[in-house]
Amino acid sequence: MYEMRMLRTAAEREEAAALVQDRQRWLTMHGLPVPARADIPALFREAQTMSAGLYEDGKLLACMIPERDPDLGWGQGPCLFLQSVHTLPGQSDDITRLITLWASDFAARLDLQVVRAETLARHTLEAEPLAALLRRLTDNGWDVCGSGPGRDGDRVARLELPAEHRAGLRALISCQVHAPQPAPDDRSNA
Q: Which pLDDT value is given to residue 185?
């Protein structure tokens, strides 16, 4: 069984930071972009960051920071925003599918209509390897809503996913994530 839960302890947060570093190393080795302006591993180490992880039998498969209604500068209406989603390198696309199912259901349980996320897009959305990633995401139900400056200033592809109650999902993914509070406007700190 899978479990999506808050990262509560220093050890869990350090494990998430290590996963992010592993993913960033993997991206660099494969010639793919990594965020230029933000120290993402440090963000996951911070106790005040309300981060969450996807686990299978105690193994961390992915981590992210779910936020409610951040000021993204794009998109209409309130949303669940998945900031800094990172998956364990060498895993199948099934992790992305699980995150997608969980996020859609979690947003619906929060009475939100949409989930939003961003992924780095240094080149056009049609250029490989980004185009292949976006095809996998759209195959999982995400809509690509163009590109532009992201939350941390990097150029990103903007993604939306409709919220949807998913009956029976709790038999596959146990959810121990707290309802995120509205995110503070941190654009002035950039």
A: 53
Q: Establish whether the linkage from the previous residue to 129 is cis, with ω within 30° of 0.
A: yes
Tens of pLDDT, residue by residue over 100-135, are: 999 999 999 999 999 999 998 888 888 888 888 899
Distance separating alpha carbons of residues 151 and 155, to the nearest angstrom:
9
Of 33, 99, 104, nearest to 61 by C-alpha is: 99
Nearest CA-CA partner of 44 in 72, 83, 79, 80: 83
pLDDT reported for residue 101? 95
Which homologous superfamily does the CATH classification assign to the domain defined by 2-176? Gcn5-related N-acetyltransferase (GNAT) (3.40.630.30)
Q: Is there a contact between 1 and 169 (Cβ–Cβ < 8 Å)?
A: no
